[in-house]
Amino acid sequence: xxxxxxLVPGLPLLGFLVLSLAGGRLSRPAMAAVGTGSVGASAMxxxxxALGFHEPFRQVLWEWMRVGEFAPTIGFRLDALSxxxxxxxxxxxxxxxxxxxxxxxxxxxxxxxxxxxxxxxAAMLTLVLADNLLFLYLGWExxxxxxxxxxxFWYQDPANGRAARKAFIVxxxxxxxxxxxxxxxxxxxxxLDIEEAMTRAGSISAATAxxxxxGGAVGxxxxxxxxxxxxxxxxxxxxxxxxxxxxTMVTAGVYLIARTQALFALAPVVQTMVAVIGAATLxxxxxxxxxxxxxxxxxxxxxxxxxxLMFLALGLGAWPAAIFHFMTHAFFKALLFLAAGxxxxxxxxxxxxxxxxxxxxxxxxxxxxxxxxxxxxxxMPFVTAGFFxxxxxxxxxxxxGVGWWSVALVGVLLTSLYIFRVVFIVFxxxxxxxxxxxxxxxxxxxxxxxxxxxxxxxWIPIPVGVFEPHVGVASVVSMAGxxxxxxxxxxxxxxxxxxxxxxxxxxxxxxxxxxxxxxxxPADAVSFGPAWAxxxxxxxxxxxxxxxxxxxxxxIVFGGVVLLAVVLWW
Amino acid sequence: MVVILxxxxxGGLLAxxxxxxxxxxxxxxxxxxxxxxxASSLVPSWRxxxxxxxxxxxxxxxxxxxxxxxxxxxxxxxxxGFVSVVVSWREIKERVGLFHFNLLWVLAGVxxxxxxxxxxxxxxxxxxxxxxxxxxxxxxxxxxxxxxALKFFxxxxxxxxxxxVSIVALAVFHxxxxxxxxxxxxELQGTPLSQGAARWVMFGFVAAFAVKLPAxxxxxxxxxxxxxxxxxxxxxLAGLLLKTGAYGLLRFVVPLFPQAAAExxxxxxxxxxxxxxxxxxxxxxxxxxxxxxxxTSVAHMGFVLLGIFALNxxxxxxxxxxxxxxxxxxxxxxxxxxxLQARLHTRDLREMGGLWAVAPRMGAVALFFIVATLGxxxxxxxxxxxxxxxxxxxxxAWMAAVAAAGVVGAAIYALSLMQRSFHGPHRExxxxxxxxxxxxxxxxxxxxxxxxLGLVPQPVLDLAGGAHVxx
Lengths: 570, 471
Description:
The complex is a heterodimer of chains A (570) and B (471).
Chain A (H helix, E strand, L loop, with lengths): L6 H16 L5 H24 L5 E7 L9 E6 L1 H24 L6 H20 L3 H19 L6 H32 L4 H7 L5 H15 L8 H4 L5 H10 L4 H8 L1 H5 L2 H23 L4 H21 L3 H28 L12 H4 L1 H14 L7 H16 L1 H26 L13 H16 L16 H14 L12 H20 L6 H19 L5 H21 L1
Antiparallel strand pairs in A: 1-2
Helix pairs in contact in A: 1-2, 1-4, 2-3, 2-4, 3-4, 3-10, 3-15, 3-20, 4-5, 5-6, 6-8, 8-11, 8-13, 10-15, 11-15, 13-14, 13-19, 14-15, 14-18, 14-19, 15-17, 15-18, 15-20, 17-19, 17-20, 18-19, 19-21
Chain B lengths: L1 H17 L5 H19 L6 E7 L4 E6 L2 H24 L4 H20 L3 H22 L4 H34 L6 H4 L6 H18 L8 H8 L2 H26 L1 H27 L4 H21 L3 H32 L15 H14 L6 H16 L1 H25 L15 H19 L2 H8 L6
Helix pairs in contact in B: 1-2, 1-4, 2-3, 2-4, 3-4, 3-10, 3-13, 3-18, 4-5, 4-10, 5-6, 6-8, 6-9, 8-10, 9-12, 10-11, 10-12, 10-13, 11-12, 11-16, 12-13, 12-15, 12-16, 13-14, 13-15, 13-17, 13-18, 14-16, 14-17, 15-16, 15-17
């Protein structure tokens, strides 16, 4: 069973290859079957591997390269952490793919869509299964590429292209820090094998390495200060957003820190930095979510905020709690996106929540599933999965000090405020638009499946740790938030920190000015210099050839005088 | 070795003559010559040495030798030779025979450069590749081709003369200590030189190689030459001629002047980093597809310069792999530029946009090579850049860190290229045919090579590892 591990990322990759190389000959149902089936098969294999899982093992396919001592492999390693990751990625990914079959029906880029989605899942699975950081980096960058392609999926609109490039370039800033971190590790410990490097990490400057890896994690996971790409990433089709926010991409940073937590544990300063960044993003994302009109942007800010909560847990050393919350978050966030997608699909792609209203009657399934997602997100006690994971993070925060705990509590309040505000605005009140409900079993089934997971997912035993929930202040605060949300149904606006404007002024415009200044390549002066000198000398010399006898005579006399003067001087 | 050179030189002449029998003949002859050369390059026994006396009085010998580095580059040259003939199939309609004569002679010159183990012979091949290359631009080029060909010629010729002076000076210094005049690389290695002499003699070599590489700020012939060259010219230029500069640094500068090279290393690494950053910014500002790609070469060859003078085995192997990977990815982008020009009669990115809608296959292939250019893991360029930077980091950490910023620059220009050509709104009336079978085959093979280099780079790294002339 364990030998099948490579098939987990291998099958979606195969799906990508089939769709991109031979897909032109496939019919549309066949494309959907290949695209969805490959991820489904991968989920089955992952489950088989999980059932046979006893202890961590590794599967090396081949040695990637060998330069001196440095010999990274193309190889996988499965332990409890990766096991949780692959199960969530494949199963949630599969449900999102199934939903996409209906959601994207009629789109001209059907094959391109499934091909890139498959590659996306394959890259993410590589990321979480890699046994060394270089191979992990391959998955890491692959995820970045696929997000670029999917955010800009509808490429004819330049705004989508801009959002796609923004996502890629902003995350690549973080990736570059990550890459420098890899160079640092190679120079210091001589290997990128994760197990090896972590055991040898005690002897090096762990703070530098951890800080550089954190740079990469901050970029991919859209944490302050590299969070700016995430809200714009909504330009892609809704299933893409679901995949980016729930199963892939933004959780990569959480995984990276959890995976290298031995390194972070050696660098308390950096670890505290993780907690601070997480706490700040938790609050900033929560406030940002309150100010949005676009239903998908609310969810985007929500993700930012929830990943902030996971970072907070990581920073406090409670990585199992962070991974637990990653799992439940994957369920309810995917559900929220898919439900939101089914709403917008029925409203002729209307995204503005203030043009919606009273939809609970006309879209009962969307309403029920969205409500379940919202309840799980705000951590309604016992009946939702979100409750358990959130409580486990709050419990760890409490142990670390009342300060961290209070910040997390404010985050909890903000969460139930912004999400139930959306529930009330969208599904209650008076109807404002005409509704053309789209009923499709392929849309409904994945939503129902995710809704069940968002309710009972907290009971799933996960091998990274055991969590004991208790109803406490947080549950009360969260319930209070729901009540307050009822009175906050009017549009809100906050004077926030304008990160986009700041970066525009600090980086984008100076870069454009620089590019403008050197675009015509001033270095060309090097070649024009001698050419100009030769041409000028030629002009000057030929100017003396006037053909006028008087000038020549004057020249001879002048020359003679100068010569005489020089001779006499000596 | 002689068979390879002979097949190309004779094949060139024959192709010229064969023109009178029809347009297809020169193409066929060229392919045949390349096939003979390629077949003999695969026979292991050729990897020995050829050493014939040539001008004994001056100590000049016809001395050819091969090692891993040469072998890799010879294979690259022959591969790109096939590519060039195939991509010229439709583009070149006039003086087909003469075109293939020039093409094969450039290749012969380039391969000679990679094999020569005698400095005079090296110089001869160095000049041999120059003139037919200038002709390729001059006769079959576009735009202001006379100026571009001239600029290319003057830059390389002037710097080549500096190298000639250095070659003679080195031989004279050697003759003074041993009493024997020789231009043989093996003999000249280890010539005792005073510090000052070594600096000056090395400078002549570095001048020639830096221009060819090209290093900032003597790169300015490159964008003009590329922009105005025919597609095959760009393929050979980017894929091979630039590599001769890097090869010269690896083969001559570092082994002949180990001390002076170590002294100059920080400066040359700085020049490399400057090239990486400068090339990235200038590339972004271009509006001409080919010109943009030309400036990306400046950035990529900056990595090669950095890797060579990091004087570290890891960085060096990275630099060699970069030579090969860049030798595939950049010519491929020029082929796409040529395909666009043939269909749209423009290379101006401001007139393109949304081309994916009409030519999705070309869009996908272009995307592949664009992400190769920005160093996506899984493709050869990534392994090359990663090893270069990781090796450099061990020597001078901050230089690697600054150079890594160039990776962000690469993302900016590469994605902007994609946006302006294939993404974005599709213009009404901008129609063109998708890639033909011939183009798909050529580009498909190049894609496969890059994936191979990215996932199984070890054979190339092994060859690149042991790089000393002679058996």
